[in-house]
Amino acid sequence: MSTEPSLVSHKRLVHLDFHTSPYIPDVASEFDAREFARTFKRAHVNAVTVFAKCHHGMSYYPTTVGTQHPALAGRDLLGEQIEALHREGICCPIYTTVAWEEDAAQRRPEWRQMTKGGLFCGSVADPQHPHPGAWKFLNFLHPDYLDYIEAHVRELLARYDVDGLFFDIVFFDPSACWSESSIRFREAHGFMDDDPSTQRRFESAAQEAFARRFTALLHGARPQASIFYNQTNFTSIDSQVGIRKLAEEMTHFEVESLPSGFWGYHHFPKLARQVSSWQKPWIGQTGRFQRMWGDFGGIKPQAALEYECFRTQMLGGNLGIGDQLPPRGTLDAAAYALIGSVYEQCEAAEPFYAGSTPLPQVGILLASHPGNDYLEASKSMEAAVMMCDEAHYDSIVLDDASKLAGVDVVILPDTTVITTALRETLKSYYAQGGNLIVSYKSGHDAAGAWALDFLPLTHQGEVDLYPNYWRARADFAPELSVSDRVIYSKGLNVTGGDGARVLVDRVLPYFKRTDLKFSSHFQTPPQSNVDAFPAVIGGERFVYFADPIFREYRQTGNLAIRDGWRRAMELAIGLPPFGAGLPTTVQCVPRRQGDDLLLTLLHYVPTRKALEIDVIEERMSFAGLTLRLPAAAKIIQNAATGEALKRISDGAFELPMSSGRLLLRVPRFWQS
After folding, report:
1. 547 with 582: CB under 8 angstroms?
2. Do 453 and 426 contact (CB within 8 A), yes or no?
3. What is the pTM of this model?
4. Is the model's pLDDT at 671 over the cut of 90?
5. How many CB atoms within 10 Å of residue 528?
6. Residue 2: predicted pLDDT
7. What digits encode the pLDDT tens for the residues 99-141?
8. Is the separation of the CB atoms in 458 and 424 below 8 Å?
9. Domain 362-573 belongs to what topology?
10. Architecture of 1-92+252-354 per CATH?
11. What is the 3-state secondary structure (H, E, C) of 18-66?
């Protein structure tokens, strides 16, 4: 297999959906292949994922395997696209769908995923499904369905010059699959329990089996073709479960995250900071839509798309923007004016980033799923990355297969479960001088026993009275010591042993609020005395928070939590080397390029303009801000103009009066 599949060298992708109902009669009636390809070319796009088959089960080429869209009447829309795009030098991997394919589900119901109770997944008859009557789930373990998909892929390989394949929806409904073929697979691999943890391991094993089959098929015919399997981007402290499990079968990763959809703006960073460490190319995929996929007529502000693409680029990813071709086949002109305006800037910045490598200072171990609650773990992870970004510590997200060497501190956010191997890794890291910041139930093994026994901490159950309060010691955080600060979440009772000291006391409320016993409008106020169990304990190169501080920050925005954590970081590793003192709204990401230090500063602020949608409408200014760097930074150049920033004092530089993004270069930083 080639070491550089065709898609990898193409940095500006459009993922073009075309999920078009068979009830729409005039499909591709206005399609002009030459103008189609030139639109992408003008928009600085050099790769387009084009569609072979959609979620409706409609094929967009003359097929003998599936069902062609009835409006096309033998027309080869896929072939016309590929030919026109290749003529413009544009790479075009082919999209096909797996588990969602309405036509096949209607024709072959025996291929559908089944619940343990014998119901079809995704049907109105399944009361447990979150969206009854939505896309029907097909079972990619069913041998006949697998043969059908293989015949479809072989047909594509025989007809077209295939640059790559994108397999979508390679996952199971959470309640599936208990069909006969799936039960045989479960029995063979020991996945017969129906708890969420077993379900995840079953799904990962099934995905790997599917991927092995089709990667071998594709690369047997097209060794240089790219291949990607799109699933739910499930991540786990266990590297044998989730998206990392498929790494060997894929040429690259794609991080699908449309911030205006249910993902939000804090979903992407935690995934990007994980996949970027896996030594494979990756694509950060957002969308041009105001809201979600298929949002026809919805176009987001340019500032929003800039921010979404710029942050992918600064973290080392290639760029992807999602779009959907309208049924008649003419691309939305306003959408491509938007995409072109952003991709033109990204293309101009590619030489700035070429050959650069990240400089993470902080390692964040993945939170596990308490009671297999993926949402709670995701909140903790999003907050851990967000807090590092706001404080300007560059971070990387780790699992149990990651190396800890090179990071100054490792964070275990709220619920990181410790395996035997991970315990030994952390023990070695700590013994060699590494720093640890641990919160709440992190540090326990799967049975709930404290596994980090090299830290002098004793756990004695959960707090009875909450919400409760932090009373910081003045020598730890003087700004938090002047008053008691509420902590809304339920924490743990923990004491420290030899070498440990209390950094923050816990103060309990007079009583726990109930419907019959309450005081004022909200939580009960604090007592005067401190509790026997402190809230924050420090020791030699560790700080332990007894409360789930990361989940609390993500859910409530509790600034006392954030500021206490930041003080713990300063105690452990000092101020951040790049960007200390900048506002929390400015992102500052360092990279190394030879002996030069590269800095990307982004200043865009999402605002809540609807109940569930954050919008970025304006670029924010850098005027009046000061950038502080280590003494080795003698000169800082604005990469766009070549001009040197005004030096205020040693290590302090005045930022120029620009907005949105700043690309800065510190020449010979590592020669000093």
Report:
1. no
2. no
3. 0.94
4. no
5. 7
6. 36
7. 999 999 999 999 999 999 999 987 554 455 444 457 899 999 9
8. no
9. Rossmann fold (3.40.50)
10. Alpha-Beta Barrel (3.20)
11. CCCCCCCCCCCCCCCHHHHHHHHHHCCCCEEEEECECCCCEECCCCCCC
